[in-house]
């Protein structure tokens, strides 16, 4: 989704690991997954008191490879390599940091493209629709597996921020600090509308085959490409797009046809093609549904005040001025019920030109806010 | 695109007419159309001095049926029936009002779905890519045909507003008043990006057949449906969507699947299906390209000041506070070069909740602004 910066101060070579879970997971939908695997990476060292663990939750297209690079693929830097590493805001000299690929993903954890051991075929359309609550349940099992009873912090941006918030509600005693960055307490009708267009692009692609395209040896590339193109429009600000592309022509002149004409078209189509070549369409559908469903105030008529009464964590809420997907107003909707419940909350509204993608960017003020807060978290756990 | 209101004060029964043009039209692209037809409607009476004619230019999905209804289809009210009619702001008791379907359209004027007399097949992919300038040239020929040497006003919203602006540049002596409503002096990168996603949905639909789907007896319904769904998101404001749909569930409960779940999904899919059933995909492509290309400042390095030096008309520029497709800021970009050139310009920024669609809505303040300005236009031509 965003730029990865130089490997200076990088954590260096990392490798992914797998954890197998044989206790059935009951989803919020009622569906049951008898067993599953999660792929994850860890950076830094768990201290003797096991008090310095940080969980990083990923957004729509993210995964477990948060920082560092692989021995056999030195250019494959983690997606938050500018934030996580020795001496970086999420300092791996102080914290034991965990990144995982969420259940339902397409980067190694059990998901629609994984083989269902009961059938010998990919799960495809039979993979359960998943919610943020389900993810947090599966993440808590990963914490159990790693011997971590309480996280120093759970940190996420966008959909990852929703998971961090859910941690404070599902497991109030298992997280001391929650970072909700560029997030929202639920999607608006407009947010859902964009997701629905993206989903319909995939669902109506003739190569989708009701979600069981694996058996047909095809991929709904057209739909996934459109979904990603549309997504990118919502990740960038209008101003950032204007500054970066404006009305620049791709080849310097108008063609009066439907090939790439403006630079912005070249960018979008490239992003769409790149994404469609590796991302699983069923995972994309699941991720957008998890976004749509997230609504902690669903059972309280939209009122978050009674919901956060059970939270115990301290919170850092961060928004970005040009983010129109989850605007600062949406972050303030998170802050209000936290204040109402007299929870410790810090709120930072960062002036940034990069829209929703800002949470992945190298903004010095944003990084300072993160660093300052995390220094306090480190001191609390004696690091 | 918007609501049509009751037929009270309606102009009553109207009928469409056709005009044939046998002089070749040379497009800005260099392409030539040897002959073409335009379908149009007129309301009211042209006065003896032929000084009370008003041209209405339509937006992306509009057409010639601006007001009234048809004898054999009483429910088919014109798309601006709330604005045009006896005693209405564009008062047909005072003005001779003309609506046309633009060249390239799919409502009766020559377009991609028309039969090319030279081949006996639909034009399809061979229909030239059209620009706002080309439309204005063809509209001027329609004016010639009707014996109108100068319009009292050329009026349009959105893409229609761009045509109205172009009239003041292409034919400075043939228009006294230009109404640019919910318009912009050019598309931004974000505007083009949305158009490109819509176009790619159509272009990559397997039923598109390179634009020659007519011969295959299919229609790229999937692509057109996605394009329209996406369009609707940009026509409505975030707030209007929130007020109208919020997170309401279509059937009162979550389904954990990909059928319609939220009310906003039901609305979007319905709009998409309805549109895809009648609108021509090639026309949709042409309309979005005309939007992308419109840029009067293209040859002056983005500076509109020298461009409007040749304009002579007076202007009414109208914007709507919640329009995020063409925001008030974009209208002010139109006002500035008009002021620079000491042209008469009135600017109204209407507080409205309906987003870009506001220009079609029954907002009393907006209608009053239009009425007041048009009363002056009527007095000038002795009506």
Commentary on this structure:
2 copies of one chain form a homodimer. By secondary structure, chain A is α/β, with parallel strands linked by helices. Chain A has 9 helices and 16 strands. Chain A has helices at residues 132-145, 159-170, 189-203, 221-235, 238-244, 263-276, 281-293, 328-340, 364-380; strands at 13-14, 17-21, 25-26, 32-33, 36-43, 53-57, 69-70, 84-85, 90-91, 96-100, 115-116, 121-122, 151-157, 175-181, 314-320, 345-350. In chain A, strands 2-5-10-6-13-14-15-16 form an 8-stranded mixed beta sheet, sandwiched between helices. In chain A, a hairpin with a 4-residue loop joins strand 11 (115-116) and strand 12. In chain A, helix 1 crosses helix 2. The radius of gyration of chain A is 20 Å and the shape is globular. In chain A, 55% of the residues are buried. At the A-B interface, helix 3, helix 4, helix 5, helix 6 and helix 7 of A face helix 3, helix 4, helix 5, helix 6 and helix 7 of B.
Fold topology:
The structure is a homodimer of 383-residue chains.
Chain A: E1 13-14, E2 17-21, E3 25-26, E4 32-33, E5 36-43, E6 53-57, E7 69-70, E8 84-85, E9 90-91, E10 96-100, E11 115-116, E12 121-122, H1 132-145, E13 151-157, H2 159-170, E14 175-181, H3 189-203, H4 221-235, H5 238-244, H6 263-276, H7 281-293, E15 314-320, H8 328-340, E16 345-350, H9 364-380
Parallel strand pairs in A: 1-7, 6-10, 6-13, 8-9, 13-14, 14-15, 15-16
Antiparallel strand pairs in A: 2-5, 3-4, 5-10, 11-12
